[in-house]
Amino acid sequence: MKMDNVMGGIGGWPVALAIHVALALLCLWPAIRLLRRAGLPTVWVAWLIVPVLGWPVFASLLAFRTWPNMPPRPEKLHPREKLRRERAAADARKG
CA distances (Å), 38 to each of 18, 30, 32, 66, 87, in order? Predict the structure, then answer.
């Protein structure tokens, strides 16, 4: 008995593997970006390549590992607002 007859012809594990590879490649860039911004090792992206357990392991690493404390990002101000705040701080120092 051929495996094609059991699976119904088209489909089966080759198609599932191709879909998995396509989804993993599609998610690589956002996952790497997320890990970099969080300050976590980007090597964890390799888990996405593992067919069955890769996604749950990657999600578990993100969920249950402690994320490092990152310093807050500096506030982006319009140049006029920055100048206004600098002048206000200088006026406050003068008295």
Answer: 30, 12, 10, 10, 35
